[in-house]
## 1
Amino acid sequence: MRRTETKLKLAFCGRAQWSHLPPPHSGRQRNQHRLTVFSRRDTASEPAVVYATYGISPVQSSDLPKEGSPEGEETRWTPISDSSREESRYRETASEPAVVYATYGISPVQSNDLPKEGSPEGEETRWTPISDSFCAEKSRYRDTASETAVVYAKYSISPVQSNDLPKEGSPEGEETRWTPISDSFCAEKSNDLPKEGSPEGEETRWTPILDSFCEEPITVRLDSALVSLSKTHVVLIMAAVSLTSEEHEVTRIERIGAHSHIRGLGLTDELTPKPSAQGMVGQIKARRAAGVVHNMVKEGKLAGQAVLIAGQPGTGKTAIANGLAQSLGPDTPFTAVSASEIYSLGMSKTEVLTQAFRRSIGVRIKEETEIIEGEVVEVQIDRPATGTGAKVGKLTLKTTEMETIYDLGNKLIEALTKEKVQAGDVITIDKATGKITKLGRSFTRARDYDATGPQTRFVQCPEGELQKRKEVVHTVTLHEIDVINNRTQGFMALFSGDTGEIKGEVRQQINAKVAEWREEGKAELVPGVLFIDEVHMLDIECFSFINRALEDDMAPVVIVATNRGITRIRGTRNLSPHGIPIDMLDRMIIIKTTPYQEKEIKEILKIRCEEEDCEIQDDALVVLTKIGLETSLRYAIQLITLANLAAMKRKEKQIAIVDVKKVYQLFIDEQRSQKFLKEYEDEFMFDEGTETAMETN
Amino acid sequence: MAVSPERIQQQLEEVEAAAEDVISDRQEIVTLDRRRNTNREALRQLKTNKIASQSTGNKSWICVGNMFLKLPNTVVVDCIEKEQKQLDTEINNLRNGLRSKVNHLNDLEAKQKTVGTNLKPLSQDEWKAVKQVLGR
């Protein structure tokens, strides 16, 4: 066996190809490495097998397919072939298992764990295919079918727990261990990871799932660098695709803001926060509380409740709110306002608040239409020879399952000629309105040298029946409905002096209509979240208004955040905790955030470095962490980009200590600034002394 | 998490059964729709060729099961229209049932429920009004 080498072996049905992994990137350490496994489309019986062996102690030779023993491999990786392509999707997918094993540890993989050579039925019984064949739509099928293989790559000193590794001498253990688990069980659950000491646990873990129809390369993300350490790591992947790490699509350029690295709350399914996930680090208790709030919002149980997130500056309050917003998803309306926005001169304070409230409540309605969707085989329109008289025409539409001919009336003929529908287009005809929509051209009609316009899209031939029922669910916020109903039509708006305020009667009418629809079952309310930041800026009138508004039956969840201690309530002379009146505080659930520890600060700085596209050396990171501890987290974050610029000036790609020191000298933080000011206050204009300066720490 | 193989098997069986249900329903819808289309084509032919078929004595051949019958056109048209109505209701029923079955399947597979599927749809003019309001 190979020792202390990082190698990948790609085997396609007996043919073994060794190929080296690319060396771990020294620069951008995302702690992930791509392992690309290509699977061919028609590899019904050719699972791609990837072996990666690392470490000192070799895997037992019987475990790994021997080089030069093709049948050895064949017998092991028995695919269940997919005989007929014409079968339904279920069959296609049902017959291709992909097996993922990842075993790491000192003790080598026991032979009885891996499929034995020459025991074909043994394999068949083990490799139960489970596929996501039950999706209603093809696209979903494809998506999920490729998310089914689980790859665990752990390279570390601590070995994988022993019960992951096939135990020596427990033959039934093997059979029971390799349980196919379908895509439905979350791959990120801790119970997916091999646990020590629970033999049956393994069976539940190693789900064979194969997407042999993947046309693109399947990418496997491994959690850490594939550098050989002192352990044996055996990764057996058969045409596997993994989505264990977080992926998000960046389809548009997003501005890098102070909280743009946050993708969610980073919780597991049991609402325990992972130490660092989805951009959030530390703050375990506050994140756990936010997770509970998230679940209650999703179930609609917290409507009309208020939540307060309080803590020192720079402790992640806005970050938690952002994480909560992201994790609720695009379905739930989330409105984030800053309390000072209330004081706009265009509208009264209560109007701004009411609009903010109504922007956080969504109404879900459904639209149903019958459409005829198919690919045009032939369009035939006959004009009468006499010049007058109606045109007649025939339209042949087909889907993958059926084909039929339609007689065309005048209206449809006009619509078809207007849209310039030709053979090979995929169109949709709305049965009720007769509207024709072109979805694109069919792939089957694409030729090599077609001259197509810039807008031409190629779509697949539609499946299923020709006459489909299309249901579209819309979520609109109450505010949108208010605004458009309130708009005075036409030129009357010029004379009416539209203040932007919405009349109470309009709102009442809309409430009544929505209530009527709710009773009829045609609409449902989606209570969302209203987040008010810097809530100490609200004055006593606003607080009274919010008190009342929360009692409404259509009220969202209100989350507020502040970093003030005991301050004066605006509009009064009374002091109160956080600047919020006590009766309002009584209605609130309070989440506390604590200042970050050094380790957490380091982690956060690392995430920000990645987000801002800077590479930083380790010792520079340590220095930056110390600066963050002594001064403030925000200051350290701001130094990152500045230090990056300093490094670029030196023509280096990485931030070094000297860069950090330089920008530390150039840009002073708040404490040094105060000190400087105290020393030289006489020399500043209009200075009145520092006794009344606000203490922010 | 230690789960016994029997439990896993049982779960798999449930998922399989539910999936089979859904898929067979959809296949049935396709078949019914095919029949509906052929019926529609036949109706069109009968209606357009009514003038031309005066000569054949207002009778046409229809195929029922494995029998061919020659019946007067009015009877044939009636027959086909009745069958169309029946097919329509059947397809609608299947589609309505499909919704709950897919939800059940999603449950079993621990996927998220598709939202809003238990809503009744808005009527035609209500939707037109909403579209106008929202400007979509």
Note: The two ends of chain B are 49 Å apart (CA to CA).
## 2
Amino acid sequence: MDFIQNFPFMSIILSLFSGPLSSILNGKWAKRVNMAVITVIGLMSGSVLAYVLGTGQGFVYRMGHFSAPWGNEIRVGVLEAFMALFFCVIMLLCMLGGVAEREKEIEVSKQNLYYIMVNLLLCSLLALIYTNDLFTAYVFVEINTISACGLIMIKQNGRTIEAATRYMIMSLLGSGLLLLGICFLYDLTGHLLMSNIKEQVQMLAATGQYHIPLVVSLGLMSVGLAIKSALYPFHAWLPDAYGYSTLSSAAILSSLVSKGYIFLLVKIFYRVIGFNVICESKVIHVLFVFGILGMIMGSVSAIQERDIRRMIAYSSVAQIGYIYMGFGLGTEIGVVASIYHILSHAATKSLLFVAASGITDASGGSRQFRDLTGAGFRNKLAGIAFTVGSLSMVGMPMFSGFISKLLFGQAAMGHTHKMLPTLIALAVSTVLNAIYFMKTVIRLYAPGSGEEAMVEGRVIHIKEQPAKSVALVFFILLNLILGLNSEPVIRLIESGLQMFD
Amino acid sequence: MDGMLLVSIALPILAGVILLIASFSEHLRQAETLGKKKTGVRKEQSEGMKGLHIYVGLVLVASVALTLTTAWTGERSLTLFTLLDEIPVFFQIDDIGRLFATIVSIVWLAAGFYAFVYMKHEGNEKRYFGFYLLLYGVLTGLDFSGNLITMYLFYELMTLTSMPLVLHNGTREATMAALKYLFYSMCGAYAGLFGIFFLYRYCDSLIFTAGGTLNAVTASGHGGLLLTAVFVMIVGFGAKAGMFPLHAWLPAAHPVAPSPASAVLSGIIVKSGVLAVVRVIYYIVGPEFIRGTWVQYTWMALTLLTVFMGSMLAFREKIFKKRLAYSTVSQISYILFGLSLLNETAFTGAMLHTVTHAFVKCGLFLTAGVFLSYFGYTKVDQLDGLGKKMPVTMWCYTIFSLALVGIPPTGGFISKWYLAEGSLESGIGVFSWLGPVVLLVSALLTAGYLLPITMKGFFPGGENKAVSKKEPSLFMLVPLIVLAALAVLLGMIPNPMIQYVSDIALTLLQ
Amino acid sequence: MDEKFMLLAVVLPLITGVLIPALPFKNRKQMCIFMETGVLLTSVLVILLLLNPPSDTLTVFRFTGNLSITFRIDGAGSIFACMAAVLWPLAMLYSFEYMKHEQNEKAFFLFYVITYGVTLGVALSENILTMYFFFEMMSLVTLPLVMHTRTRDAILASRTYLYYMLGGAAFAFIGMIFILTYGTTSSFVAGGVLDLTKIGGRTNMILVIYVLCFCGFAVKTAMWPFSTWLPKAGVAPTPVTALLHAVAVVNTGAFAVLRITYFSFGADVIRGTWAQNALMGLVIFTIVYGCSRALKETHIKRRLAWSTVSNLSYILFGIVLMTPLGMTGALSHMVFHSFMKICSFFCAGAVIYKTGRNYVHELDGFGWKMPKVFVSFTIASFALMGVPGLCGFVSKWNLAKAAVESGNGMAYAGVVALMISALLTAVYMLSIVVRAFFPGKDFDYGTIRDVEDPNWMMIVPLVVFIVVMFVFGLHSGPIIRLLQTIAAAAA
């Protein structure tokens, strides 16, 4: 066994223990530790990815060399390693972008608490990515929920407490359903390890036994994770949670937390149930329908929104809809498209959140549209970044959004019945995206401050916010890379999915 | 010798354009000074006008001479250049073109000299004569054109160049009338163009050929479509000829135009519509194609309706020039009715009526112009007793009226006779007897609206003391007399004319 | 010539544009000379390229395996490119003068010049992705031009503009995906690339997708019901309305429709189906609708914009006939309409530039004060009406000929629509002309005392356009034959 194979486990443990470590540090040092941990884990994930690509096959890591059912397993493939790497990059950039806000909005005494939460969150995300055990996954889902709540609540005002409570309730509901589903499955198969369950499920499916319980359990797990990742119509908690929490939290929540659950769902589809069984079940039709509804309704809500942060938050609902629609198509390429969209959306949405905060900074801290007029001239980099993000969302060629749209379209083409609804939904949702994002962009470049503006804007130079500027530049680059050089990424996803089997 | 043809068309056009440029630059200067100094309307300089008259007169005589020589000395054709893919601008002189060119030339000469005096009180003579000459060239081109596209080209140009004549005096009313004229003409022209597209598809060529060029093979199976297209063309070109339902421009445009302009509008321009219809029906589609179809019957019904309606409206009208305009509506539909019968006699009658009506209606408008320019009278009831003041003019008017009513020995009698005979000969059910009846009724109405003016003019029952006895200037009088003489002559010695026209009819309707 | 020059032609305007704000110009004249040189160089390059077309394609960039940005010169593209190459230098000349009375020139010229490159990109695109790419770019780079005046109207108009543009692209996207999936190749190949065996018997699916895609691209040509953006975008400075919203942008839409119809889906697949009839119905309606709206409109530029709506649908009408003749007609109208409409817009712009008057009823007597402009306007009007001897008649003739030839009942209705539209055109154009030249007897010229013709920079383009209109009108043989060859090769 190569030493490098320990890295996944080590990265989970590292982030887990850096949490308690932060509790005895002050805010400043906690931040440094946190950054360092994320960087190190990113590097480790990168080397794991290189390793897996080199060997050309995934590996299973048994903790303490106990085999199942007593031991716990980690399974690493190309996709897992890549996801871990990508999540680290995004998280690092999000943390970087939100430094100023954190210092301003969080009480000094509680700063280190924030980093505990972030570390725990990272730990749970990594665990969700790597674990080969369904129950372990459940445990980390809960840890994830708790730390996410902490991230929302840490900026203390009425709104965030309310938002956190809402999030808590919905999330727990989702976890509960997930747990129920897992129980059903355990009852049917007698296993908790993914590979073992799959063998049994395949057998059951082949013989046609326990058809209904199987579907019920699948449905419970899907709905549970859908609630947690804010699929329409379970999105009510989202706008407040994303809209009012501190910047890094919003960016991380929207681009990573919900994506972690979705990735877990992909794993359940491929590694627990088996994709062939999934495709035959009715569950994906439900996901498809709700995905499409989400695409449309999320955008409609975003159009009506007058607060830029909440608008971006609602846009997330639409984007989550895209992802579920891709699953709902029930084809390999549909899943590829969805996973690509996870990446593209993570890169774009966090960019938008950070850019939006740059814009609000230049508009006297107000997030209302009427105050944002001409902000693109006041904070040039944020304006450009927001424009890039918007164009990517609208699906302009060169940016990442275009490629995911392309993949979704191609995925839809392979389908007989779902083709036209998908294509039309894509087009309509693009139009809606265009409406609210471009409206904002045009407002950013409208002349001066509008007469109806309530607050005085001020000019912000790039040097004034170095961390944010660096983060923005990297986000833009990430977007362009995903948009212009998508082929390796797509091939990576494809080979990763193959390794799932 | 082809050059002759080109020159006869180009000479008046060039002369007109030169005049227009002069007028344009003069007007520019005027607008400049008017804008700067805010002086009143500048007085026309009579010396300058004399030079203008000599220029116009010379050009007019020269080009008329040229046109007539070109027309009457042998067969000519000329391909100028390729306008569209396979269709050149192509001129070719045939019998009917000759006939029309001759009428145009005579009327143009008459109305042109008349205008020297008349236009003095309208002002802006340079522009008027510029367009007048230009229009003459265009009409010559129209008469000599050898294919449908060339004809359409000149047809459009005719509309555009005649429009400034209508709005000459620049009042709001005139502008609106001109726009109305433009609208109806364009409407008609585009309807015509619509048909041309289809004819191009289903005909062997668009060159005018006696008997038509419709390709029976390609056209078979598309009869309904083609008939519709032909009908649209008849209605479209009929707009220029004032055929119902596109007749409304005539009563609007004629009264506001200067009298010599309305004279040529009524005498010649409306005849272009007739020529276009002849060209389409007899030279492209072929009369056989529409004989006995709904197109023929509807066409006939429309023309008879127009004949009757025009006369009725004229009868009710109190404004002299408007009454004459309605009369034109009615009279041109006589011609169209004759054409719609599709037989030799009727065709002969139609052509004869074309000639007669050209001279007569031109004369009538010129008479109206005399009254208008000398006394400023526009209403019919103002004309009482003028016969004693202007006996020669009134006598000319009487002759024109008689000719239009169709009383021997004038030309009108001959043409109407042929029309009626053609109608009876045709044997088309109800139309064969309804036609003559309508013609007769309309003739009575014509008598009813024209002759009372003569009667009241000579026997007013009271003296009109407002004006003194004075004949108009010779420039005005001579054209009137010449036209009146021609109208009578056509009735007295009709045979050469009949011979010529029936020869054409024979070739077209073997 | 080497195929690399194609890239140069597209990039040269981009570079020129980007350099405008970057270079330190001593004065305005220097800047103008710089820009004109850049644009002229590009035009010369384009013309040279068209005269010696490179035999190879040039792949600039690959997105993924079969998705690439690739350039090539072919018949239809070269017509479009040539048109842009002729019009741009002239329009630049005009805008040097025009932009004197507008703010923020540099930003304007930056995007104005860049649009040239993007237009060439559309013309030279070899595959559907490249075209889509430049199609989207076109929306983006023209947006700042619409917003240019920064008034409230301009902001609102630019919003509408962008919604329509991106919305259209979203639907066009569907067609692109379809071609990428079910085509044998993504390149434009005469006769279409659909792999019918792969699709099986699902003809209706093809047609639905085609209709969606057609409508998507046709948003740029302002087909009803997507036409409101065009008149609204009239708030932009006149060089933009004239060159972009009467020529470049809208023709890009028409060109894209032509590409997907004849080179991607294939005319044979669509001909005679309900899709053809439905689209033809829309197009015919637009022809009449645009004219009627133009008639009602009293704002000159908006009137011309509505006229553009109608005229662009002439082009679309030619395209949906699905025959080589139809394509000939479409291409010819694309070329001719550009000259006619840009000429009339420039005249309107000259009036606005000189006097700031925007409405038709304010133009009384202008013909005598701005004779050069209004004589040009009159000639352009005649051309738009389709008076024989000017180029408008030629394209109308070709379109109608194709319609009659196609033998489709709906196409006959199209011919009727063409004629109605011509009639309405006569009314709404000539009512301006009549007003300008015949203001009435007692019109007081004192009220327009200081009105005069603009200087040579505005007049020269007008003269060139008029000469072109006459040349094409009187001697259309060569160009029509050229277009016929192109169309015959395509279908």
Note: Chain B has 20 helices and two strands.
